[in-house]
Amino acid sequence: MDYEKLIIDSIEKLSGRFSPYQVFTDWVSMAAISISNACRPFKDKIYMEREEKYLDTFKKYNKEELKMLTDMLGALTLCFEDKMCDMLGDIYMKSGCGSKRTGQFFTPYHLSYLTASLVYDEQISKLAESEILEVNEPSSGGGGMIIAVAEVMKNQGVNYQKRMHVVAQDLDWNSVYMTYVQLSLIGIKAVVVQGDTLLEPYRKGYDESRIFRTPMEVGVMF
Question: Which of 88, 105, 204, 207 is the most exposed place for a label (fewest CB within 10 A)?
């Protein structure tokens, strides 16, 4: 079954009261918050603030539409069973969300993979047996470059889930959510941060409300 097409068709069907861009961003933000809050051990202030945002978005859709959004997340998970790629970036572009108006375009995955191979192939091949590859992505987009590095590791027989750690940052919240969802579903240890990397790079003491840690990062089986 073509799960990517199922998601794109679902976005089109939901695009009546809302634009495809709004449907996509609502879906991804709800998915990110669901995963993040499932990983938080306590219902603290950040948990409650994210839950409130989730419910505000949830209320925009009826029961049938919410079922479609849920099925879309299940389909996205199954997409990654077939292959590693920037699936959300691809869906974003194919569903008509990329435009001059929104100012967001995502690099085709094959170019990200080519770049990752050229930059990281030799470095990965020289990793010591227990060494961790630290990857810092200052403008993560949907996380495509990070996924490409993970695939390069996989193709070299290196377990990226155990031997890769990522700090990914982006100014745009939608990119943060996209990166977080994809890295969570693929099983990458990552800290995903919202903010301007040049003006406020991630460091100890950073505002926790703008940080999303993947299940692998916090040690949660997801």
Answer: 204
